[in-house]
Specification:
The chain is mainly α and about 160 residues long. The chain has 3 helices and no strands. The protein starts with about 80 loop residues before the first helix and ends with a helix.
């Protein structure tokens, strides 16, 4: 009967202190030395590019259209569209707030009315932003409904306080 072979690593000797150790450093470098300087990444100024050329870091077209020229300010978004989203969001938020919390619901309702009205005046001055008009009108309508609900809830709340119920 023979004995099975020992598992890997079983019976190995510790490393010899006289033998150079392998570590995370490149060959010929010790722990106190700095890393060697990297070589050039691409063609230097005045040299010809490789056979396939190098892409320009400023003029590469993107998936979102042509880029702005270097140093140009970014494209401005439509202010009436932003106001339309804000007015619609405030109007949607103000309706449940008008039913539940009448003493604070007038704030988002007036914000919806104000941003909607200001956005409509901006659309009147710049007809190219007319795609924001439905959002602005919806925000104004929801703000008015919320203001009406807030007034009804406030009257009901005050009346219930004084009636003792």
């Amino acid at each position: 009967m023979s004995t099975p072979p020992p598992p890997p690593g079983y019976g190995t000797l510790p490393p010899d202190p006289e033998e150079p150790q392998r570590g995370p450093y490149p060959a010929g470098q010790t722990p106190g030395q700095p890393y060697p300087a990297p070589g050039p990444a691409g063609p230097q100024y005045g040299q010809q590019p490789g056979p396939y050329g190098t892409p320009s870091p400023y003029g590469t077209p993107s998936a979102y259209g042509t880029p702005s020229p270097y140093g140009a300010p970014p494209r401005r978004t439509s202010t009436p569209m932003t106001l339309g989203y804000l007015s619609l969001g405030m109007g949607i938020f103000a309706i449940p707030a008008g039913c539940c919390c009448w003493f604070l619901a007038w704030i988002p309702a007036l914000a919806a009315l104000g941003t909607g009205a200001y956005g409509l005046s901006e659309v009147k001055h710049d007809p190219s932003t007319a795609d924001a008009k439905p959002y602005l009108i919806a925000g104004i309508v929801l703000g008015a409904i919320s203001l009406f609900l807030t007034a009804i809830t406030a009257v009901w709340g005050v009346a219930s306080i004084f009636s003792g119920g």
